[in-house]
């Protein structure tokens, strides 16, 4: 590929430099999003790679047309990629606790409560899991989430409410048991 | 939400170890370099013009909000990339656009009604219509609702906002009603163990199967995540016939008590029968029976299916199609399955046929997934494999309901015919096959002679006979036991070689059964291969390549890892493999026997977990000191050439804590080069008592020495 200078804010940034920056800046966010969607470390790594390759292919059209944030655009590609992967996963049994055990050792200590809550989130249906991921982990606004998921903000809001309700029920249920 | 911070912390902490590595980045770079050319840039002026066009389109649509409402309702939930859509998805969008009067070129839309158009042509027209309004790749930049009724306009006044929100809620509620989210009620979510218990209770109360009589391999549980169902099965067969206790049965056990010809009981006490006998009375007599129970994720029953021969065959075939052929389970049309008994073959046959009308859901090979090619339908996929036809039928042939004699994607059964005496002997056929392979591939006749020849005679559907010959090689690479082969088909009447291929190219024409039948030794090798797989799975590696287990982020193989990495690996994986071997003594015995016989080439998961590795404590001598002592011992005791030792290309170090009272420093000086002959030492190994500095072992490495002794 030629060392094309991409027009825009970062005038001196070549396409290769941009890819490097994206990987450095958003790589972990994309990888984490893929894991949340797929519940499988290996698949998440594959999907993350696919997403960056797709982003590379479409870098020019991104530059020309997209007005939102880079991160939202990359997340959108990643989540689309994961949705596509999920179609092929029907027959696979997902053993959530087992998959979490396969995660590399956490750099931040994880309390049992945090692990339970994470399991609850991971056990949500895909549509709900995605909105929780984007809202609470990636800190996106409703509008950005809409860009990522390709659905209207009001629909996002609707899903977010449902997802929160399920988690709240889980948390309160546990709190009551502990009390 | 009051739990915002909790959620954030839970996600951040749990995911913190999952990091993009240099290896990932390198792989991405590599793929972008491999022909992934960036599209030609649009000049900025054109890009700007494009944005203006989009804005004007949007403005046009906004003025027609009432008309567009219905349209947005239809398309609101269209997601995924357009490139992944089926033709009917695109047609649905185009139809909705037409109703909303959003298609400028009506002639294009009208042309879709032409019955002579092919699916490809229709798809092209749809793409043109969609792209004319939303541009290429629109799915990366927004959604139809935002294009047609953007945020800034829908928020232009209080009234519009209210109106839009009301409309939006109505649409969502209506959608929910038709497509309810399958939210699992998680008030005490059922665990798999609990679910299993429910199934066992059910079997006991409804079929009198005593729980204690059920062996673990008779019960299976699968979770279908997407459909949110569990499927549990219980199978009885000759080996595990299952007990039967009639007193537990809710219905009278009519046939468990002998009756006279008038139907009167001849015994007072019921005679216990096995489950297999019971089923043989209730159902058709056969070798085994399977009970299937399907529940939602909360354990609520959706169906309970005792055995039927036809259903079992269909289940078996559909399972094969989903696991091997990439069909999606939900895509099956039950009417396309057929089961019948072929009188001529004396075999049961199950088939599934795909046609233009029922093209099967898109399926892709792993390669296509890896390289991101568009999804294709199964019909298209088969056309690539077999050439274009109107339909394809997938067959399975059974001699009993659960034993597949032969199956092929689109194939015919082949069976042995015992009484046929071929004019061309198998040995002559093998010679002809070797010659053909020698001409076709860079392998010599002598090399082919070295490989094990496995020759089988088959009868084709048309009655003709054929030799199938396989020349099999077997080797261990560092990561995996590998079986490889060349294969050929030879006409036993004429000796003509019909095909000669490398097994990798054989495209699954041969199944494992064929190979295993052909040679007991091959079966043993396959068994070893299975063991490698089982060990890998015991460590939780489903990736199939062991990458995460034997390579670190720097791309270094296990032997070259740091002491910390080896210690962490050992802590995690040694107990898993030890437990696995405890539970599978046949594997443990076989491995021990091989080790005792002085064989090498053990599965890497086994080798790397034979010793426990840790880190030196305060009582240990330093690594440098230990290495110095070891180096000297090799020179003194083995009389190793100093120059050779100094040129070791790697010195692998281990801190062995298998015996915590006697930790060992271990060093392997690897001096093997391309020039090293089979009669020379391939390196030097030394172990040193970590506390006393005493040399515990010191020896040369010879060809065939197991790595277990060098680490």
Give structural notes.
The complex is a heterodimer of chains A (179) and B (711). Chain A has 179 residues and is mainly alpha-helical. Chain A has a single domain, classed as PhyR, sigma-like (SL) domain (Butyryl-CoA Dehydrogenase, subunit A, domain 3, Up-down Bundle). In chain A, helix 7 packs across helix 9. The longest helix of chain A is centred in the C-terminal third of the chain and has 26 residues. Chain A is globular and about 50 Å long. With 711 residues, chain B is of the alpha+beta class. Helices cover 40% and strands 18% of the residues of chain B. In chain B, 26% of the residues are buried. About 18% of the residues of chain B have low confidence. In chain B, a hairpin with a 4-residue loop joins strand 1 and strand 2. Chain B has a 4-stranded antiparallel beta sheet. In chain B, helix 18 crosses helix 19. Chain B folds into 6 domains: 135 residues, no CATH class; 116 residues, no CATH class; 88 residues, no CATH class; 93 residues, Nuclear Transport Factor 2, Chain: A; 79 residues, no CATH class; 88 residues. Chain B has 25 helices and 18 strands. The chains are: A mainly alpha (179), B alpha+beta (711). Chains A and B meet through helix 1, helix 2, helix 3, helix 4 and helix 5 of A and helix 1, helix 2, helix 3, helix 10 and strand 1 of B.
What proportion strand of chain B? 15-25%
- Tally the beta strands of chain B: 18
Oligomer state equals: heterodimer
H/E topology pattern of chain A: HHHHHHHHH
Mean pLDDT of chain B: 70
CATH fold name of chain A, please? Butyryl-CoA Dehydrogenase, subunit A, domain 3
**What topology, given as strand order, has the largest sheet of chain B?**
1-2-3-4
**Largest beta-sheet characterization of chain A:** none
Unreliable spans of chain A: 1-11, 87-94
Strand content of chain A: under 5%
Look at the helices and sheets of chain B and give the structural class. Answer: alpha+beta
Instruction: Tell me the number of helical segments of chain B per DSSP (H or I, 4 or more residues long).
Output: 25
List the total number of helices of chain A: 9
- Which percent bin holds the helix content of chain B? 25-40%
User: Roughly how many Å is the radius of gyration of chain A?
Assistant: 18 Å
Overall mean pLDDT of chain A: 74
Q: In one word, what is the shape of chain A?
A: globular
Stretches of chain B where pLDDT falls below 50 for ≥5 residues? Answer: 35-63, 79-83, 179-188, 250-265, 364-374, 401-418, 475-482, 504-526, 542-548
Cα(first) to Cα(last) distance of chain A is 62 Å
